[in-house]
Design brief:
This protein is of the alpha/beta class. It is built from 15 helices and eight strands.
Length: 363
Amino acid sequence: MAQNDGSLSLHRVGFPAFNNYNLALKYFCEQGLQTGFVLPPAQTRKTIHYGELNSPDYVCAPFKHLTGSMIELLECGADILVETGGPCRLGFYGELQDKILHDLGYEFTMINLDIYKACKKREWLKLMRFINPDYKIPVMLREAANAIKMAEYLDDMEALYHKNLGFEVNEGDHDRVEREFLLDMKMAESGADIRAGYKKARSAMEALPLDKPPFPLRVGLVGEYYTVMDSFSNLDLENKLCRLGVEVYRNMNLTNYNLHPSELKLRASAKDYMRYDMGPTSAATVGAAVDYARLGFDGIVHVKSFGCTPEVDVMPLLQRVSADYKIPVLYLSYDTQTGDAGLETRVEAFYDMIARKKKVLKN
């Protein structure tokens, strides 16, 4: 672990749980800002209970997940919480969560990054100076680049995992490689550690024996930013599809949406279906669906949190894409349920439908 005059700064920063990206944030805080970091506990029903109990009734599910995770972070000793904000109602969440958690009696500082999006560089530097007055700008910039690279590697390995998981010969092979990779990322202390861990994991996963047909079923996931990416929020949807024997693809990730945005390309793909910007991820949802359809995918799954207005608005457009390209679309809406029996039934029925359709077309 990087040291700062023999120790890390006294602050302990916490980001609410979101897929595996907290590992990259951990690396940046510890190595770049040389401050303490609290990894959020794995989300459970307890996380959801905390979130539901302390959230407005009709707020979207990501707010409840994030709020519950923040409470667990505070219970684990975090004294700085970070809310990233966002282009929809998420942009207002930081202020509301700050008030809710302080009303519950927690002592901490909330950093709402949504406030800083229009700020000049000196305001960002002042923010980092607050976290650790002794941080070094060259070190921070170098380690920020390494953290970004880690996030890209996390996305790349996850994509490979979901492409091949359903066809592994030896059950558990992909899970084993993925666990080892995540552990390497968690323990990384340098860019060299990150690159070595990724290279080892990529080679190991590519070498795993597969029993895959020449033309496997392919399903593309589209939908709301948080729920479609966070496996706990969507009840492990991607793995459920994979284990039925499907290649699963998801364009929506941190790399494609934030680090190397492909939104202009997706907007071009969506231009025949939407003339105006309908909100945060609407263009990405429709554009990715059109791309999957044009590439001959067998099905599309649309994932959103209950009440997500932009994703509700794109559903009629997805129905048009489905009709134009003769591709089935499964619509899934999530709140804070943790039982997955109903989801299992719908996913299995969707799989049966696209499998029969592919068999008929093949014959």
